[in-house]
Design goal:
With about 325 residues, the protein is an alpha/beta fold. It has eleven helices and 13 strands. The chain has helices spanning about 1-10, 15-25, 65-70, 75-85, 130-145, 155-165, 200-205, 235-245, 255-270, 275-290, 315-320, and strands at about 40, 70-75, 100-105, 145-150, 170-175, 175, 185-190, 200, 215-220, 225-230, 230-235, 250, 325.
Length: about 325
């Protein structure tokens, strides 16, 4: 799995031979040519870090899974059944919200006081501004009437916890980090206000009561965490699911600021067309894949605490394959 994910992130083709082997082992007899409409992946162990869409069905020479079917991920068959039932359940209990989309982008992070070391306060490393994250939420506000946008100093942790319980769709475009030792301390870095540290951490999300049909964590490593036997993946995504989010879009590694902004704009445009979450995400990935999208000159700007430079002229499958859908769902804007 590491050979595939490292190759995808590096923008080279070193991962393809391993993907051929895994495709033959994991997808040996999947019907293709329109016979399969959707695939639900219940990953175990290290496979939770793998975007199955890049695997060729039946191994080398077969079509990629992304070409054959919509793909969504779940941590267990029981949870999958519950989510499928929720798709047709009466939503009359949902709380009214003034925001069709609650979007946070490019928070002011210079004053954040929290450390990535659990239980300590020592100051985050200097975080670069995310201009494309700001453009991302501005674009969403133009697309979707009734979007509530919070950027810069307004994009605070306190504002998130005030507004998120009533939001039907939540979008966070910011820096994030994963704490492998203590996954509950993994977090999204927002702006601070007063005595708060400005970070939405997993253990805080667990205490929330969300009603969101979709939470998009448009940041680095938001789908990562610690794998625990019998418990599954423990991290930010699990915290949001337990808090009540019905579906999530998360990333499996560091993501580029500019590419992510373009990716998310296309994703929401397809949701507005009425496509399901899985279909919209698949179509967006396909568009990036077919164009071999290369982006601009700032290929080293990522939405996480790390910084990784890539060749901006290389084809970058890692830019579209990083994002995966947790839980099936219909478009919230249909």
């Amino acid at each position: 799995v590491s050979r595939i994910t490292d190759g995808l992130q590096g923008g080279n083709e070193s991962w393809e031979a391993t993907a051929d082997e895994l495709g033959g082992a994991l997808l040996p007899g999947l019907p293709v040519a329109g016979a399969t409409k959707a695939v639900f992946v219940l990953a175990d162990g290290p496979l939770h870090r793998l975007p199955f869409e890049v695997l060729p069905i039946g191994g080398k020479g077969g079509p990629l899974l992304i070409q054959a079917a919509d793909v969504a991920y779940e941590s267990s068959a029981t949870l999958l059944a519950e989510r499928l039932a929720a798709m047709v359940a009466d939503r009359s209990a949902s709380r009214p919200s003034a925001c069709r989309l609650l979007a946070f982008g490019d928070p002011a992070t210079a004053g954040s006081a929290a450390s990535v070391e659990s239980g300590t306060r020592g100051g985050l490393p200097t975080l670069r501004a995310l201009p494309h994250a700001r453009e991302e939420v501005a674009h969403l506000s133009r697309l979707i009437e009734g979007t509530c946008v919070r950027v810069g100093e307004q994009a605070t942790e306190a504002e998130f916890f005030r507004e998120s319980p009533s939001a039907s769709v939540i979008h966070l475009a910011a820096h994030a980090y994963v704490d492998d030792r203590h996954p509950g301390y993994s977090g999204i870095v927002l702006a601070s206000e007063g005595a708060e540290d400005g970070i939405v951490q997993g253990f805080e999300v667990l205490r929330s009561d969300l009603r969101a049909d979709l939470v998009t964590l448009s940041a680095c490593d938001t789908g990562r965490g610690r794998w625990s036997r019998g418990e599954g993946l423990i991290g930010l995504s699990r915290a949001f699911r337990i808090a009540g989010a019905r579906s999530l879009v998360v990333s499996l590694w560091q993501v580029n600021d500019e590419a992510t902004s373009e990716f998310m704009g296309r994703f929401y445009e397809r949701l507005l067309e009425g496509q399901s979450l899985a279909a919209a995400l698949r179509a967006t990935k396909q568009s990036f894949r077919e164009e071999a999208w290369e982006g601009g000159s700032d290929g080293d700007v990522t939405r996480g605490l790390g910084r990784r430079t890539r060749d901006s002229t290389a084809r970058t499958p890692g830019w579209w394959s990083a994002f995966v859908l947790l839980g099936p769902g219909a478009s919230p804007y249909r």
